[in-house]
Amino acid sequence: MQGISTFKIANKLITGNGATAKLKEEAEALGMKNPLIVTDKILNEIGVVGKLAKYLGGSSFGIYSGVKPEPEAAIVEECTEVFLSGNHDGLIALGGGSAIDIAKAVSGYARFDGRIEELFGTGMVPQKGAPLIAIPTTAGTGSEVTNIAILSDTEAQLKKGIVSDFLLPDTAIVAPEMTVTMPKSVTAASGIDALVHAIEAYISVNASPITDALALGAMKMIAKFLPKAYANPGHMEARENMATASLMAGMAFGNAGVGAVHALAYPLGGRYHIPHGVSNALLLPYVMEWNKIACLEKFRDIADALGQNTSGMSNPEAAAAAVEAMRSLCETVHIPKGLRSFSIPESDIPSMAEDASRITRLLKNNPRVLSLDDIEKIYQTAY
Ligand SMILES: NC(=O)c1ccc[n+]([C@@H]2O[C@H](COP(=O)([O-])OP(=O)(O)OC[C@H]3O[C@@H](n4cnc5c(N)ncnc54)[C@H](O)[C@@H]3O)[C@@H](O)[C@H]2O)c1
Ligand SMILES: [Fe+2]
């Protein structure tokens, strides 16, 4: 029987090649007279910011380009100072998940009278902040449609989330042309992140028919188009499909949640600063090998969506084919394998497992229960 479920995303989605041309109109509709573009140094230097600024016409705006990959809370504080001192009245996030998450956190923090750390957790943001338009340049995190901002807590060496519906962007402009300059490694890592979002949402205990349709659709598109986007950065059909798939996977996991792959990946990001998509990919086949007996039928669907021919296979065979297809897709886009290849000391595994076991916000969505011991074993197999 289907339980009650809520579905929430950004208020408005604008998609398609050239969609950024709508920026001025959308900013005005949200009452922005002097927005702050939140982005990073690389996107500024390679001209992506300039390309976007052109679409703001003669309007007044500011640029904050201090976002770093896997950003820490201090960046939110710095960006908030720029936002407040420049009398900005709106935020335009331009970048990958890192820039979008910073802008989301700034929208929550700018009107909060406390320390940023007090916002970590669920439902701690007291009110809606400045209007926010999110324009992803990776494909991707799906952050343009989710209610979470993920920050690195440098002290705890963990990635932590600010989760609040007040962080849902007002408008997401998903324009594939913004993603063509992505380096190959970012195309691969962010594409695998989107795949993991779709797979984890599909097998989540909170999945609904709505999130299932989005998740399966995204898996099919990623399996077909990620290798093409990786092989040929200018392949616009592939970029279009990846941008849309990432958005769909974001809508799926923003509502059904992600599970153990993300929970086990967080300590890798928090301690060793491994890019988010890569940490997920390092664990994906091993966590899925563990999960599959909990939902064999769903794994058969995943195998089909990833292009495997499962006719004549038993459910366990089809589930094994699904895991193999995930492994093979990661290999095709040259994601490095093995925790050891990142010089992670094997002796860190027990404490990493302890950190991961505390991420109950995600582990509770996972279809198979994991004990501390199980988590340690999975890290060991992934080593
Ligand atoms: N809020 C959410 O719902 C959510 C979901 C998943 C991941 N995340 C978070 O998002 C972050 C990762 O985001 P990401 O994978 O999008 O990468 P990113 O934003 O960290 O960007 C990675 C690198 O790619 C560069 N880059 C991005 N787009 C580019 C482009 N078009 N051309 C050239 N260079 C480009 C950036 O400058 C940066 O150096 C992590 O902190 C992760 O935890 C958030
Ligand atoms: Fe993710």
Automatic annotation (TrEMBL):
Keyword Oxidoreductase among UniProt keywords: yes
Fe-containing alcohol dehydrogenase-like C-terminal domain residues: 187-383
SUPFAM superfamilies recorded: Dehydroquinate synthase-like
InterPro entries: ADH_Fe/GldA (IPR001670), ADH_Fe_C (IPR056798), Alcohol_dehydrogenase_Fe (IPR039697)
A Pfam family matched in the record: ADH_Fe_C
Domain Alcohol dehydrogenase iron-type/glycerol dehydrogenase GldA: from-to ranges: 11-176
Domain of life assignment: Bacteria
UniProt GO MF annotations: alcohol dehydrogenase (NAD+) activity; metal ion binding
Alphabetized UniProt keyword annotations: Oxidoreductase
PANTHER family per UniProt: ALCOHOL DEHYDROGENASE (PTHR11496), ALCOHOL DEHYDROGENASE 4 (PTHR11496:SF102)
Family indicated by similarity: Belongs to the iron-containing alcohol dehydrogenase family.
Protein name: Alcohol dehydrogenase
Organism: Mesobacillus campisalis
